TrEMBL record:
Organism: Piscinibacter gummiphilus
Domain Histidine kinase/HSP90-like ATPase per the UniProt entry, residue ranges: 42-136
A family per Pfam: HATPase_c
Designated name of the protein: Anti-sigma regulatory factor
Amino acid sequence: MTPSPADEALSGSAPVRSEQDIVLSRQLVRKLTQQLKFSLVDQTKMITAASELSRNTLVYGGGGEMRWEIVSNGAKTGLQLAFEDKGPGIPDLEQALTDGWTSGGGLGMGLSGSRRLVNDFDIRTAPGEGTCVTITRWK
Protein backbone atom coordinates (compact mmCIF):
# COMPACT_ATOMS: atom_id res chain seq x y z
CA MET A 1 0.00 0.00 0.00
CA THR A 2 1.37 3.41 -0.96
CA PRO A 3 1.29 5.98 1.85
CA SER A 4 -0.86 9.03 1.21
CA PRO A 5 0.49 12.55 1.72
CA ALA A 6 -1.37 12.64 5.04
CA ASP A 7 0.75 9.68 6.17
CA GLU A 8 3.98 11.47 5.31
CA ALA A 9 5.83 13.60 7.82
CA LEU A 10 5.07 17.31 7.63
CA SER A 11 8.73 18.26 8.02
CA GLY A 12 12.20 16.82 7.83
CA SER A 13 15.77 17.46 6.85
CA ALA A 14 18.43 16.17 4.51
CA PRO A 15 22.20 16.71 4.44
CA VAL A 16 23.83 18.75 1.68
CA ARG A 17 27.44 17.59 1.82
CA SER A 18 28.11 16.13 -1.64
CA GLU A 19 27.04 16.29 -5.28
CA GLN A 20 24.89 13.21 -4.62
CA ASP A 21 23.08 15.10 -1.84
CA ILE A 22 22.17 17.83 -4.37
CA VAL A 23 20.58 15.16 -6.58
CA LEU A 24 18.76 13.69 -3.57
CA SER A 25 17.47 17.13 -2.52
CA ARG A 26 16.00 17.67 -6.01
CA GLN A 27 14.33 14.24 -5.86
CA LEU A 28 12.89 14.96 -2.42
CA VAL A 29 11.52 18.34 -3.50
CA ARG A 30 9.99 16.73 -6.62
CA LYS A 31 8.28 14.13 -4.43
CA LEU A 32 6.97 16.74 -1.99
CA THR A 33 5.65 19.07 -4.71
CA GLN A 34 3.93 16.13 -6.39
CA GLN A 35 2.30 15.11 -3.09
CA LEU A 36 1.08 18.68 -2.65
CA LYS A 37 -0.30 18.55 -6.20
CA PHE A 38 1.67 21.56 -7.41
CA SER A 39 1.31 22.26 -11.13
CA LEU A 40 4.16 21.01 -13.30
CA VAL A 41 5.39 24.60 -13.71
CA ASP A 42 5.39 25.21 -9.94
CA GLN A 43 7.11 21.86 -9.35
CA THR A 44 9.83 22.84 -11.80
CA LYS A 45 10.29 26.27 -10.22
CA MET A 46 10.67 24.80 -6.72
CA ILE A 47 12.99 21.99 -7.86
CA THR A 48 15.16 24.49 -9.74
CA ALA A 49 15.37 26.84 -6.75
CA ALA A 50 16.21 23.90 -4.46
CA SER A 51 18.92 22.74 -6.85
CA GLU A 52 20.53 26.21 -7.00
CA LEU A 53 20.39 26.71 -3.23
CA SER A 54 21.68 23.19 -2.50
CA ARG A 55 24.63 23.85 -4.79
CA ASN A 56 25.32 27.20 -3.06
CA THR A 57 25.16 25.45 0.32
CA LEU A 58 27.75 22.92 -0.81
CA VAL A 59 30.05 25.12 -2.92
CA TYR A 60 30.07 28.39 -0.96
CA GLY A 61 29.02 27.20 2.50
CA GLY A 62 31.11 24.04 2.62
CA GLY A 63 27.99 21.89 3.05
CA GLY A 64 25.06 22.04 5.39
CA GLU A 65 21.47 20.98 5.59
CA MET A 66 18.16 21.37 3.76
CA ARG A 67 15.14 21.46 6.06
CA TRP A 68 11.65 21.16 4.62
CA GLU A 69 8.19 21.77 5.98
CA ILE A 70 4.68 21.62 4.58
CA VAL A 71 3.13 24.88 5.73
CA SER A 72 -0.32 26.44 5.60
CA ASN A 73 -1.62 29.97 5.70
CA GLY A 74 -5.39 29.98 5.87
CA ALA A 75 -6.64 28.05 2.85
CA LYS A 76 -3.21 28.01 1.18
CA THR A 77 -0.73 25.16 1.50
CA GLY A 78 2.90 25.45 0.57
CA LEU A 79 6.32 23.96 0.76
CA GLN A 80 8.99 25.77 2.74
CA LEU A 81 12.67 24.90 2.35
CA ALA A 82 15.57 26.22 4.42
CA PHE A 83 19.18 25.79 3.30
CA GLU A 84 21.63 26.39 6.13
CA ASP A 85 25.40 26.23 6.31
CA LYS A 86 28.10 27.26 8.78
CA GLY A 87 30.35 28.66 6.06
CA PRO A 88 31.96 32.08 5.73
CA GLY A 89 28.68 33.95 5.20
CA ILE A 90 28.02 36.50 2.47
CA PRO A 91 30.06 39.68 2.96
CA ASP A 92 27.95 41.85 0.60
CA LEU A 93 24.39 40.55 0.46
CA GLU A 94 23.09 43.31 -1.82
CA GLN A 95 25.77 42.49 -4.39
CA ALA A 96 25.15 38.75 -4.03
CA LEU A 97 21.46 39.28 -4.86
CA THR A 98 22.29 41.22 -8.03
CA ASP A 99 21.45 39.37 -11.27
CA GLY A 100 24.56 38.16 -13.00
CA TRP A 101 26.97 38.68 -10.11
CA THR A 102 28.99 35.65 -9.13
CA SER A 103 31.78 35.08 -6.66
CA GLY A 104 32.77 31.92 -8.51
CA GLY A 105 32.54 30.49 -11.99
CA GLY A 106 28.76 30.22 -12.09
CA LEU A 107 26.19 32.15 -14.07
CA GLY A 108 25.27 34.42 -11.16
CA MET A 109 21.69 33.14 -11.07
CA GLY A 110 21.70 31.17 -7.80
CA LEU A 111 20.33 33.60 -5.22
CA SER A 112 18.63 36.10 -7.51
CA GLY A 113 17.23 33.40 -9.77
CA SER A 114 15.93 31.39 -6.82
CA ARG A 115 14.27 34.49 -5.39
CA ARG A 116 12.32 34.96 -8.65
CA LEU A 117 11.14 31.33 -8.69
CA VAL A 118 9.39 31.35 -5.31
CA ASN A 119 6.69 33.32 -3.52
CA ASP A 120 8.61 34.03 -0.29
CA PHE A 121 12.38 34.43 0.03
CA ASP A 122 14.34 35.23 3.17
CA ILE A 123 18.07 35.20 3.75
CA ARG A 124 20.01 35.48 6.99
CA THR A 125 23.77 35.74 6.76
CA ALA A 126 26.72 37.25 8.55
CA PRO A 127 30.44 37.01 7.79
CA GLY A 128 31.89 34.10 9.73
CA GLU A 129 28.47 32.84 10.86
CA GLY A 130 27.12 31.06 7.80
CA THR A 131 24.00 31.55 5.76
CA CYS A 132 20.38 30.40 5.92
CA VAL A 133 18.13 30.90 2.88
CA THR A 134 14.43 30.12 3.40
CA ILE A 135 12.05 29.86 0.45
CA THR A 136 8.35 29.10 0.21
CA ARG A 137 6.16 28.29 -2.77
CA TRP A 138 2.39 28.40 -2.22
CA LYS A 139 -0.13 26.24 -4.05
